[in-house]
Design a protein that fits this description.
Length: 244
């Protein structure tokens, strides 16, 4: 499976790592607890980005009604299901067959009609989408430029991309890789700090594939407030982008 450059973008060992976690993905107190904690913050940013990008629907309970959404690296569907509740016709893609199966089972149990597909996004004949989300994925791919080309190819004219990823800083190395994995907050082996991308690097890569960043926030933590959107990007950040 390859992007425009011909380089594979998905590492088999990354796929295997997350496939082993599939059965526990929806357990908010299990190995994916960190994703359950950050998900409301990510969804808050997505809603803000959607309202800004399509202001006519701002304030609506279903601002994505009539729109198609794609979540790349969907895991077991933590983002797909809220997007469906916002009215979108949702497709979730993940490299791990086990994750897609877990996602489909959970969606069936909640009565949501979501299309899930296993594989690399470049290899799937799925068309283009009004909204593309790609959250905590790019740090796990081998060829980031090729991957972002494939992501951009899925964005329809006038579409919106939302992407999040850890920043490559001393703080993220200490806390996201060292401390978080040591205490079990993140499953051991989840992150390679050298694969993290700074906001400046990511903005340049997005520009290369024809996308312009429209909003950028950090996701920070502090006592008494927990995880929240912030101007502090030292650990993780989330951005929106559109075609240049």
């Amino acid at each position: 499976m390859a992007g425009k450059t011909g380089a594979a973008t998905i590492r088999p060992e990354e796929t295997e790592h997350f496939a082993r976690l599939a059965r526990d993905w929806w357990n908010a107190k299990g190995p994916m607890a960190s994703l359950h904690e950050v998900n409301p913050v990510r969804l808050r940013f997505i809603r803000q980005a959607v309202d800004s990008h399509w202001p006519a629907a701002a304030g609506s309970a279903k601002p994505l009604a009539g729109k198609a959404a794609l979540d790349i690296g969907c895991g077991a569907g933590l983002v797909c299901e809220p997007l469906a509740r916002l009215g979108a016709d949702v497709t979730g893609v993940d490299a791990a067959t086990e994750n897609v199966a877990a996602a489909a089972r959970h969606a069936d149990g909640t009565g949501l009609d979501i299309r899930y597909m296993a594989g690399e996004v470049a290899s799937l004949d799925i068309g283009t989408f009004d909204l593309v989300t790609c959250l905590e994925v790019i740090e796990h791919v081998a060829d980031k430029r090729a991957f972002l080309f494939d992501v951009a190819e899925r964005l329809a004219p006038g579409g919106l991309l939302v992407l999040s990823t850890p920043n490559r800083t001393a703080a993220s190395r200490l806390l996201l890789v060292g401390a978080a994995e040591a205490v079990g907050y993140v499953p051991r082996g989840t992150h390679r700090w050298s694969d993290f991308v700074t906001p400046e690097e990511l903005e340049a890569l997005l520009a290369e594939v024809g996308l312009t960043v429209t909003a950028l926030r950090g996701i920070a933590w502090r006592p008494g407030k927990g995880l929240h959107l912030s101007d502090d990007r030292a650990l993780t950040y989330i951005l929106s982008a559109r075609r240049s």
